[in-house]
Give the backbone structure.
Amino acid sequence: MNYLIYLAYGLVDIRSEAIYSILSYEAVRNPDSATRILVYTDDATAFQQILGTRADILYPTITAEQWQAWRGAANKVYLLKVGVLEHAAANYPGNLLFLDTDTIWRQDPAPLFKRIEKGHFFMHQNEGRLIVGNTLSRKVYRHLQGQEWESGGHTLRITPETELFNSGVLAFRSDKAYLLREVMALAEQLYAAYNKHMMEQLAFSLRLAAEGPIADVPEYLWHYWNLKEARPAITRVVNIYAQQSLDALLLHLQQLELPSLHQQELAYRNLPSWQRTWRKLTGRRWTMPALAP
């Protein structure tokens, strides 16, 4: 069995993003697909009011105590996905494809599931070597280089060749779930060593890479992680058009043009620092346009 897995805990804006992502998947999926969707949320009713009650969308029941336990010793919301994946592997064995809510599907993931079944690991995108990455990546490299951690019989080190993968997608076969305890333990050590939000994705990157190659999947979906300011607009669209057909709701969400805005902001973000500074000084820095529903 193939499973898409969403974690939509807490904010209403996160639920709105998840609804958009699910609708975008419905638009590209093969009608004959038997893939099921697992939505880990603290408000299943909010989803069912819009998507209806469907056999192919499941809402596992998670207690408040379990949600808190999944934050780990580091007490980080980023670590919830480790607990979610462990729960999914134990209760819904098969090919697991977890994705963040701020994602928009571009094509049917059926080919990915075939490769997952063969034992491949996937994360969203290879962000390159830490040593030459963005400002935070370079800081992490400088702070952690030379340190090492034991995990699953492997000695993991930060070296000039260490690559960081974006954890907006995490995919593997459920019989690989034993790795998740090791990822959690490693992440807690990394947070203790250098308390930066990206330690969860670094833990996945290090531990999975020690097990086998990691492939990335940017051609399958847009991951607009850099557009947090768009969240209220997504929620407004969902609130206004949720009572129309799901096709109409998806059309209105698509009119926000988030993939284009995502690329525009990334292009600005990736400019040399002197160019960004010059644009700021001349009033030409990139800003999020007003998004009307």
User: Anything to note?
Assistant: The chain has two domains: 2-223, 233-281. The chain has a mean pLDDT of 94. Residues 233-281 form one domain.
